Amino acid sequence: MAQLKDLETRDRSNWCPGCGNFGIQAAIKQAIVNVGVDPWNVMISTGIGCGSKINQWIETYGFAGLHGRSLPVAMGAKLSNHALTVIDVGGDGDGYGIGMGHFIHNMRRNFDMTYIVEDNQVYGLTLGQTSPTSDKGAKGPSTPFGIIEDPVNPIKLALAGDCTFVARGFAGDIPHLTSLIEAGIKHRGFALIDVFQPCVTFNKVNTYAYFRNKVYKLEEAGHDFTDLGKAFEKAGETEKLPIGIFYKVDKPTYEDNDVGLKDGVPRAHVDISNIDVAMVEESFM
Amino acid sequence: MKNGALNFLIGGPAGSGIEKSGQILALSFVRGGYYVFSNMEHSSQIRGGNNFLRLRIDENPHEVHVDEIDVMVALDKQTIDEHFSEVVDGGAIIYDGEVVKLPSDFKPGKVKMIDVPLKKIADEEFGNPLVVNMIALGILFGLTEFDMSVTKSVLDKIWGKKGAEIIAMNIKALENGKTIADKNWTKDFGIKMPKKKSLNNMYLCGNDALCIGAIKAGCKFVGEYPMTPSSSVLHFMAGWADKYGIVVKHVEDEIAAINSVIGAGFAGVRAIAATSGGGFALMSEGIGLASMNEVPIVVIDVMRPGPATGLPTRNGQGDLRFMIHAAQDDPVKIVLLASTPEECFEMGFKAFNLAEKYQLPVIIGYDKYLGEGYYTVPPFNKKDLKVERGELLEEKDLAKIEDYKRYLFTEDGVSPRAIPGQKGGIHRATSDEHNEYGEICEDALNRRLMVEKRMKKLEIALEELPGPEIIGEKNAEITFVTWTTSVGACEEACEILATKDVKANVLKIRTAWPFHKKETLEILKGLKRPVLVEQNYLGQLGGLIAEQTGFMIEEKVLKYDGRPFTAKYIIDNLK
Fold this sequence. Notes:
The complex is a heterodimer of chains A (285) and B (575).
Chain A: H1 20-35, E1 42-46, E2 61-64, H2 70-80, E3 85-91, H3 92-98, H4 100-109, E4 113-119, E5 122-123, E6 129-130, H5 154-160, E7 165-170, H6 174-186, E8 190-196, H7 208-214, E9 215-217, H8 228-235, E10 241-248, H9 254-257, H10 278-282
Parallel strand pairs in A: 1-2, 1-3, 3-4, 4-8, 7-8, 9-10
Antiparallel strand pairs in A: 5-6, 7-10
Helix pairs in contact in A: 1-6, 3-4
Chain B: E1 5-14, H1 18-31, E2 35-41, E3 48-58, E4 69-74, H2 77-83, E5 87-95, E6 112-115, H3 118-126, H4 132-144, H5 149-159, H6 164-184, E7 202-205, H7 206-216, E8 221-224, H8 231-239, H9 241-244, E9 247-250, H10 254-266, E10 271-275, H11 277-293, E11 297-303, H12 320-325, E12 334-337, H13 341-358, E13 361-367, H14 368-371, E14 374-377, H15 395-399, E15 428-430, H16 444-462, E16 469-472, E17 478-482, H17 486-499, E18 504-508, E19 511-513, H18 517-525, E20 530-534, H19 540-549, E21 555-558, H20 567-572
Parallel strand pairs in B: 1-4, 4-5, 5-6, 8-9, 8-10, 10-11, 11-13, 12-13, 17-18, 17-20, 20-21
Antiparallel strand pairs in B: 1-3, 2-3, 7-14, 12-19, 16-18
Helix pairs in contact in B: 1-5, 3-4, 4-6, 5-6, 7-8, 7-13, 10-11
């Protein structure tokens, strides 16, 4: 069982002072401690972007891959060793932009994993372009006259995509975000936690103050997270922004149903030293 | 025409059961003690068009087809239009004149035209149009006096699940065909194929052989997106997933395929992705990732002509450069080239050892002709195959290491490897340039050392990679320099040239990267007349050899029409 100090790395993070990622990093660490899993049984998969550097600075196994491709890596790792606690963390550009296809497909597969999206509505590491979740009209170097597309609504997408755990947190409320991530890890299935993450350098609109003023907690508003219709209604709210669990349902996981895993043994633990292929060869005779 | 050797072609529109008929015929002869090589030429459509399957049935094994036809079953007129000229004198064409309307001035010459109302018999006597092909096969068995009893066991194998009635109906259709043949044609037909002692051989395609190697190697994860002509790898592995405990995932695209395979490799599981050129293009960035993060994976490129969609169902050998160079900068990888089903099996096994020993992506390239071509081979030699996992650590090893560094600088460039779940091995595998711990690091000296560390692995690996191989005569007047299935065509060209007192041999290249510079140059310098033979426009292997050894091969036989070589084509195109 890990303690917070066990999750400290040699290296220190290099995010901008005040970056929302600090809150997310703290919440992930605390959630790992709360869940009680050993750090060496945790694998954090990330793509590319400011937020994707997060696994550099959490002392668990980590794989930092390509932009937008963290989910397939997480899937391969989970199916190869389903005893691992697999967490995927990435930005909105990573998950809702370049990696959108993987996002949609992995929700419906319902692997037992947790996907945390640091949603700062901007491309930080490439210096401030608008992102798929940028508010309509937002300006950046790639959209100097304001973006004319409507933003992606990840919560609605997840609800429509049969995601079995759909939640939203706020990087400025670490205890609440911790509880969401903890619930996401404990959920048997694919858990999406979209996180409002202020970018203090490039996003001067969606700031800590902006979110503090707008967010309210679903659980305090008496939201029933088993009601898909109500979840959609909540996901559409824009005046005030609900955080908490929108929807949760229990379904068998992908691992439960995969014939290749029917013996329940993680593939990484299977003895492969002497496999007999005689029956395959006979099938060709 | 001679007894014990039969070149057969069945052609017709897509969806007319050509492949299944061919399989029944082939397995009958394989179980009857013959060697069958077959290749299907089909268009990229599910119904219509003209598809044809060639079977070369012989007492001796062959790895290439010939253009001559002894017996043809023509299910449409196009088959006769396109292939009549290939039918030998004394050969036969089995067809239904009611379906295949030949012009009144059609001149068959010395070809026997076996016009049988196949459709009418199928409809009236069987009430089932599907038995047309079986009646035609029965005619062939009759003509060649092949003992059909073996075919009954083949039908049980292939259609056993459909029930005894279906089997009985098909046997009756075969016998019906044989009766027709015996009545009018058998006596005069010049090729007899007596049943021989079964050799207990397998009849399988290159993709199948590769999969058997992969299963033997302990591959437990497949991430793949279907793409002709590699899809049968996905189907095969999926079919055996429950028996061998393999997770087989048909994912959303090739990008997901390669990245999921990398996730599996990182987690300590042997994983494979098979694709063709277009899918391989989508995998390129991932191949660089496996190279950078030093993740063992195996990728198969079953080549078809490109670029873009190209000729989806035809043959090409144009991805040599692409396989070597896929991914930006200097990706570290091994590229093996298979030319026979035995090599598919062997490389399918050994690629996983190489991937884990050197912690890098291993690519196996071969063409559609091998991937989807069917061969008759004995069960594979597994005697010396040993699973080698290289520097993969166990927890007890990690317990002895105080300061674990995943990317430790070592003499041979290979670092001790921990996998998730192991206490004491925690690290991050990072696609940014990283230091020995795996932490992002932009230091110039570290960068230089890391590039050299990864590259060093190739120098060491080269020693155990299959080198250039001379097949056949020493001191030949002509040496065909080639790769993948062009090897088989060249070998047969050598046999034909030998009958004309010309000594020829083959230089086969089995590893494209890293390249055996010294060994290859040594051989090339001693050749009298090297001739480059491959299926692409630029002569990519020739280019690679020139680049790596400085040796230019001036004489070339190149083909890029999407159709495989025959020995005859190669000889006809020599200067």
